[in-house]
Amino acid sequence: MQNQLDSAKEGAEKAQAENNDLKKHVGNIKSELDQANAQRSELQKKLDQATNELKSAKSQLEDKQSRLEAVQSELVSAKGGAEKAQAENNDLRKQVGDLKSELDQANAQRSELQKKLDQSTNALKSAKSQLEDKQSRLDSANQETEQAQAEASDLKAHVANLRSELDQANTQRSDLQSKLGQANSEITELKSELEQAKAARKEPQSE
Q1: Averaged pLDDT in 10-residue chunks for the chain of 207 residues
Q2: Rounded Cα gap, residues 143 and 164, in angstroms
């Protein structure tokens, strides 16, 4: 019985240690989850910034496109002149070249911004995936903690039952010892009475 009680105590201590380890593990996972949330917020901020830059580039592109169309319209109307029209034509061609160069630069900037946006989107997806994985690990750890707590409660109940049985056994042992003492007293008394009877029987024979 004592060995069973010691084994139960050892199992309870082991369950408590496992509970402590699980709590520490859950704390670590929560810390990682907070870090992932912070990274996600930072990535979202960068994505918003890249989106705003892309919108600005698109607006500039539309403005330059509008200017290009206006220049082309002026170029058509300038064909009615001679030298002046030719000079204006040359000037306009230069402006068109400059605008095309600016347009190419804007397109390059848009492509770069789109690349950054794609990178930010991929990073955000990766962060979300990591967050989901950490949440899954946290849910699993919580389930393990709840299971360990349930096992610890069952173990405590079993230990309580063992203690109750031990107390009952001690009570029964005390009762048996009391009865044994009473029986020994009765035996001693019977032996005394027997000795007296033997002595009384010997006295008549001696006479």
Answers
A1: 64 71 78 81 83 83 81 64 67 79 82 85 84 82 80 80 84 86 86 82 62
A2: 31
Question: Structure pTM?
Answer: 0.33
Q: What is the CATH number of domain 2-206?
A: 1.10.287.2610
The residue ranges of every structural domain in the chain are: 2-206
- What secondary structure does DSSP assign to 11-69, as a single string? HHHHHHHHHHHHHHHHHHHHHHHHHHHHHHHHHHHHHHHHHHHHHHHHHHHHHHHHHHH
The C-alpha atoms of residue 80 and residue 70 are separated, in whole angstroms, by: 17
Surface-to-core class of residue 68, CB atoms within 10 Å of its CB (0-12 exposed, 13-18 middle, 19+ buried): middle
Surface-to-core class of residue 90, CB atoms within 10 Å of its CB (0-12 exposed, 13-18 middle, 19+ buried): exposed
Q: Look-up: residue for tokens 């990535």?
A: 43
